[in-house]
Specification:
heterodimer, A: alpha+beta, Cytochrome Bc1 Complex, Chain A, domain 1, six-stranded mixed beta sheet, 11 strands, 43% helix, 19% strand, globular, B: six-stranded mixed beta sheet
């Protein structure tokens, strides 16, 4: 399997610090923008958790030259699409539109980057607080197992740690945001020097550069952001917590400390996760789902962040009585992989599968724009496509042994057990 | 400045609808080929005339159950080896079933397309149906039924299926069946259903690829040259017309009410397809649609509200869905009912014209992804729509009048629409007391386990 296409990027900075990456693809009648702000929930102040995520909503509520609702309307009326997402590390705004309208997207993005506060008022803020509160109800509080992830964070990080709360924030904090909170947060983090803009698709380089200069090359009053010291947290023992929720079956999550996004280890850990649970023949899936038939489902996931990483193994045991034994066995099996390493075919299978997925991911210009910015954000290199594949292809069993010994060997992990509420009486 | 940018004229001819090449194989099966050269990949969707229409009521769910077992070993490969082989070549094959069809959705690098076809043939013609896998899948599915009764989306889907499709023999059962029907599945039953229906059925395939029509025709002739001999049953049915009815599925301690409003609509290939979609854009299919603007952006009662169509061959439905916090349920109902009336008689010319254009321009991004093209043309194939139809889409859309839109509004929001809510029954009843609904409270255990509902 090989892919020799070159990605030709133009990358530069404006005088105000805005990072710009242009990627031309004339095979589509569209242009897409992808704007990364270097602010995620790790920047949420204490007692104001979720405020970074609130901006994902407020940024569509109007700015100096754009009334509430107009941003959606202008883009959708032209057949375009738009949305945003927030993670622990970043907030991302993305749009696409017929290529002739590049100027419109740039105008809209610039207006909210420089002039959001002119469109912000108590009414809009109150409205979006209600919307986010409902988002929390829908996706977390009113969903089976919806509280699992935040309970892991609460337990593995100290209360004041920037990664100790979910991106959406707590219900109480969501209800507490004021206009002053919002203004202060905006002035600290929403400015050109804290952002990276990708323009991808069917455009002319000179025109795009001129438009970007016209709309983005200006200054804005900012507040200094606090330097956050992100303490490197270790899990240095086995410990557990139980919660009781509106669920029918228990769920068990084992959380291990893992590697940061920009380290080679994180790619090896992603591959290790696939070895554990992505295929019928994966170690844990084969043994516990198919052979022992002791779980309804078993999965693993490597969550790589800018300043930390965590690795999960999660399963739905078929009987409550077997839970502790299962945890012990799963852990032992992970260690034993050192003595039962995957053969060449197994490793090559995962490499090939990832290579195919990489090619499939290049279909949509919006997806490509986002991937470019993600590589830029984590590696300071928009052209990390090939390097990712090279790293994947270079992984050997020595790497697998190395990461098992580095991240799993010392029996240091957190166990979250989610039980049906009916079990609380038996506790 | 903004006005100048917005006044720029968009080129209406910018949208190029792909044209398909049609091949009818000697077996009678049909291929729709779409050429796209951007990447060395192929996306295939094969639709077979296999569905719950062949199920006995006592065996509801068996077709979906069989389709889920197909990947558990075929030909010379057991379930581990088959999965390994597919992954080794970077091929994904996903079987799934709907009320009308059984689909295989396939993604592959074009250099491995011959392998992909080989595996498709193997999966379809030589599945193992190992007794242990059958037993495991059955036990797990029965266990999952316990989870279904707390999953709001599944409860809404189950109750609306039972009510809206009550009088249609094939559609009225939940796709995965019910606990009391799944309980009856065994090896013989599975093998009989498979033998009778999965091996003799007509298919239509759509493929978006960088390969030529001839290469594709050769692959289908080489690997999938089945001779169909099963005739599709046709059903007589009546629509289950209910007036002002609200079904409540009680879920204790729910902090939101999950709502689905459903009504019957015309099929995918009906003349009013574009008119009703433009109406839907005005009402609820986009961020700046009326319902989202009011229920989310004005009163903040929800994270989102949207409307869409679900097209089946015999019965299609129009659906509005949302999740509302309990405290704003009464206000939301007042506003919803008010909005339904307003949109039947109060659409501005500008709103109408903009929606028409927006609906048309949406096609510009439709054909970026291979999978989107394949999915779109699968509908075209299933409803026997021609290249001429595709060439005329622009004309169909821009010929629609405001009166056409009002007609759709009045049909889709008429008194036959049915409300379904999953949530805390006491709170819901208190909040909807003003609206004179004929309220029917439904037992979720009975829906999930036995497929029973008092109509």
């Amino acid at each position: 399997m090989k892919f020799d296409r070159e990605f030709n990027f133009v990358k530069y900075k404006l005088s105000n610090g805005l990072n710009v990456i242009l990627y031309q693809d004339k095979s589509t009648p569209l242009v897409a923008t992808n704007l990364y702000y270097n602010v995620g929930s790790y920047r949420d102040p204490q007692n104001k958790t979720g405020i970074a995520h609130l901006f994902e909503h407020l940024m569509f509520e109007g700015s100096k030259n754009v009334k509430k609702g107009e941003h959606f309307k202008f883009i959708e009326d032209l057949g375009g699409g738009l949305n945003a997402f927030t993670s622990f590390d970043k907030t991302v705004y993305y749009e696409f539109i017929p290529a002739d309208y590049l100027e419109l997207i740039l105008f809209l993005e610039a207006d909210r980057m420089f002039n959001l506060l002119d469109g912000l008022n108590e009414e809009n803020l109150k409205n979006q607080i209600d919307v986010v509160y409902n988002e929390r109800l829908e996706r977390y509080d009113n969903t089976p197992y919806g509280l699992t992830f935040e309970n892991i964070l609460f337990n593995i990080y100290p209360k004041t740690h920037p990664y100790a709360h979910p991106v959406i924030g707590s219900a109480d904090d969501i209800k507490s945001y004021t206009l002053n909170d919002v203004k202060e947060f905006y002035q600290k983090y929403y400015h050109p020097a804290n952002a990276s803009l990708v323009v991808a698709g069917n455009f002319d380089f000179d025109t795009a550069k001129k438009l970007i200069e016209q709309y983005f090359d200006k200054n804005i009053i900012t507040l200094p952001s606090e330097q956050i010291q992100i303490e490197n947290i270790e899990i240095n023992k086995t410990f557990e917590k139980r919660i009781y929720d509106n669920v029918q079956f228990p769920l068990v999550n084992m959380t291990f400390k893992a590697s940061r996004y920009d380290e080679r280890d994180s790619i090896v850990l992603s591959m290790f996760s696939e070895l554990l649970s992505s295929y019928n023949n994966s170690y844990l899936n084969k043994k516990y789902y198919f052979e022992e038939q002791s779980v309804l489902n078993i999965s693993s996931y490597n969550l790589a962040l800018k300043h930390d990483g965590i690795f999960f193994v999660q399963f739905l045991p078929k009987s409550i009585e077997s839970i502790d034994k299962l945890i012990e066995n799963v852990y032992t099996d992970i260690l034993n992989i050192r003595n039962n390493l995957p053969d060449d075919f197994m490793l090559q299978k995962i490499k090939n599968s990832n290579f195919s997925n990489f090619i499939f991911s290049l279909q949509s210009i919006s997806d490509v724009a986002n991937q470019i910015n993600e590589y830029e954000f984590y590696y300071n290199d928009p052209d990390y496509f090939k390097k990712t594949i090279e790293i994947y292809n270079s992984i050997t069993n020595d790497d697998i042994v190395y990461i098992i010994e580095k991240y799993f060997q010392n029996k240091n992990y957190f166990i979250l057990k989610v039980f049906p509420k009916s079990e609380a009486e038996n506790a | 400045m903004l006005e100048t940018i917005l006044n720029k004229q968009i080129n209406k001819n910018i949208i190029e609808f792909p044209k398909y090449s049609y091949i009818q194989l000697n077996s009678g099966n049909e291929i729709y080929h779409l050429k796209k050269d951007k990447l060395p990949i192929s996306n295939i969707k094969i639709s077979f005339d296999i569905s719950p229409k062949f199920e006995d009521d006592n065996h509801a769910g068996i077709m979906k159950f069989i389709s889920s077992l197909l990947m558990y070993g075929a030909g010379e490969y057991n379930k581990y080896e088959l999965d390994d082989q597919l992954s080794f070549y970077g091929i994904t094959i996903s079987p799934y079933i709907t009320k009308d069809k059984f689909y295989l959705s396939v993604n592959t690098l074009s250099e491995y397309i011959d392998k992909a076809f080989y595996f498709i043939k193997l999966i379809l013609t030589e599945p193992h149906f190992d007794i242990n896998d059958i037993q495991l899948a059955k036990e797990n599915l029965l266990k999952y039924f316990e989870h279904f009764k707390i999953d709001n989306n599944i409860l809404l889907s189950a109750i609306s299926t039972l009510v809206m499709y009550k009088n249609h023999k094939s559609y009225r059962n939940f796709l995965q069946g019910f606990a009391n029907t799944v309980d009856k599945f065994d090896e013989n039953l599975i093998k009989n259903y498979y033998k009778n229906y999965f091996t003799n059925t007509k298919y239509k395939a759509v493929i978006t690829t960088d390969l030529s029509t001839l290469e594709i025709e050769n692959l289908f002739n080489k690997y999938l040259n089945f001779n169909p001999n099963i005739k599709n049953p046709k059903f007589d049915f009546d629509l289950n017309k209910l007036r002002n009815t609200l079904y409540i599925v009680h879920k204790p301690e729910a902090v939101q009410a999950d709502i689905l409003i459903s009504n019957y609509t015309t099929p995918y290939n009906a003349k009013n397809y574009f008119a009703k979609n433009i109406f839907n854009r005005i009402l609820g299919s986009s961020f700046n649609s009326r319902l989202n603007t009011v229920i989310r952006e004005k009163i903040g009662a929800t994270y989102g509200i949207s409307s869409s169509f679900s097209h089946q061959i015999d019965i299609s439905t129009f659906n509005i869905s949302t999740s509302i916090e309990n405290e704003k349920l009464n206000l939301t109902f007042k506003i919803l009912i008010d909005e339904f009336e307003k949109v039947k008689k109060n659409i501005t010319i500008e709103e109408f014209e903009k929606s028409k254009e927006a609906y048309y321009y949406k096609y510009i991004s439709f054909f970026d992804k291979y999978k989107n093209i394949t999915n779109y043309y699968t509908n075209i194939a299933e409803y026997n729509l021609s290249n001429e139809y595709i060439a005329n889409i622009k004309e169909y859309i821009f010929n629609i009048t405001l009166d056409n839109i009002y007609e759709e509004a009045n049909n889709l929001l008429n008194e036959n629409k049915v409300f379904f809510i999953v949530g805390d029954a006491e709170k819901i009843k208190k909040n909807v007391a003003d609206f004179n609904f004929d309220i029917k409270e439904v037992d979720r255990e009975k829906i999930i386990y036995k497929g029973m509902v008092e109509i």
